[in-house]
Write a structure and sequence with these properties.
Order of helices and strands: HHHHHHHEEHEE
Strand order of the largest sheet: 3-2-1-4
Number of domains: 2
Organism: Methyloligella halotolerans
Family: Belongs to the cation diffusion facilitator (CDF) transporter (TC 2.A.4) family.
CATH superfamily of the largest domain: Cation efflux protein transmembrane domain
CATH class of the largest domain: Mainly Alpha
Oligomer: single chain
Membrane topology: Multi-pass membrane protein
Number of helices: 8
Distance between the termini: 40 Å
CATH architecture of the largest domain: Up-down Bundle
Protein name: Protein p34
GO biological process, one term: intracellular zinc ion homeostasis
Shape: elongated
CATH topology of the largest domain: Alpha-lytic protease prodomain-like
Helix content: 55-70%
């Protein structure tokens, strides 16, 4: 099975290949759209390297200075990827502005379209793989890198359409005009990547559907306890941290309450991939029901 590190390393190789093909397409045509597409691919190389470094760092085990691990390194990487996506979009807008002032006819458009189309196919296949494995491995860096490559695929399709339309109609202005539209879409996608990554850095709770599953798992495996309350969650890369208070009868022994905690913890780890569970046991005088998680 592919590891996160190998996938991140593969992204560097694929990004370099795609960059070379897209720049070749620009040289063949002189198209500002294809030039902007190649420019965006330079960012792909930088983000692939950044993601590789983040994946390696996040895989390091906890140490004295980082007792909770290094998983948040992936969020920092994803924020940087988002910033680079926005910068790429602004660069495209910059080049398109000048070409809108002075549209020019393209040279060798068919050859350029063919080379760029080949690069786009490579990118599309690889970005779908990154997103799929990134989600299954709970790797924010890989998933954000895949989404970044998806913006590159969108860019390339838009540019290909613009160049083809300019070639078919003779309207040279279509080339930079389509580049502007694609750049605006990239800006939005870059913001989305940054927003989600910042949420992870701010210890955002899991989605409501995941929280419902966590509450149900606690409730259905807490036989012998009275209730659970103050359930809290946060995510850090591939890890999901869950902590809550478990109320047990006052006469229950430490060993009995510990057995209940072990049962709940095992169930949560099966229900939530990468779960790290902390349970604080309390006597029945601390019960808050209703408002907690009732025991079935």
């Amino acid at each position: 099975m592919l590891s996160a590190t190998k996938l991140a390393l593969g992204s560097i190789a694929v990004s370099l290949l795609v960059l070379g093909l897209k720049y070749w397409a620009y040289v063949l045509t002189g198209s500002v759209g294809l030039y902007s597409d190649a420019l965006e691919s330079i960012v792909n190389v930088a983000t692939a390297i950044t993601s590789y470094m983040a994946v390696r760092l996040s895989a390091k085990p906890p140490d004295a200075n980082h007792p909770y691990g290094h998983d948040k390194a992936e969020y920092l990487s994803a924020v940087l990827v988002g910033v680079l996506i926005v910068l790429a979009a602004l660069s495209i807008l910059h080049e398109a502005y000048y070409d809108l002032q002075n549209p020019k006819l393209l040279s060798a458009p068919l050859q350029g379209l063919s080379v760029n189309g080949l690069a786009t196919l490579f990118n599309a296949a690889w970005c779908f793989m990154l997103i799929r494995f990134g989600r299954s491995m709970r790797s924010t860096a890989l998933e954000s890198d895949g989404k970044h490559l998806m913006t590159d695929v969108v860019t390339s399709v838009g540019v290909l359409l613009g160049v083809a339309a300019a070639m078919a109609t003779g309207w040279a202005i279509l080339d930079p005009a389509v580049a502007v539209l694609v750049a605006l879409n990239i800006l939005w996608m870059g913001w989305d990547v940054m927003r989600k990554s910042i949420g992870g850095l701010m210890d955002e709770a899991v989605p409501e559907e995941d929280m419902d599953r966590i509450r149900e798992t606690i409730s259905s495996n807490a036989e012998g306890a009275i209730e659970a309350h103050d359930v809290r969650t946060r995510r850090a890369g591939r890890m999901t941290f869950i902590d809550f208070h478990l109320v047990v009868p006052g006469e229950m022994s430490v060993e009995e309450s510990h057995d209940i905690c072990d049962r709940i913890e095992d169930a949560l780890k099966r229900a939530v991939k990468g779960a790290k569970v902390t349970i604080h046991v309390e006597p029945e005088a601390k019960a808050k029901h209703p408002g907690g998680v009732p025991v079935v």
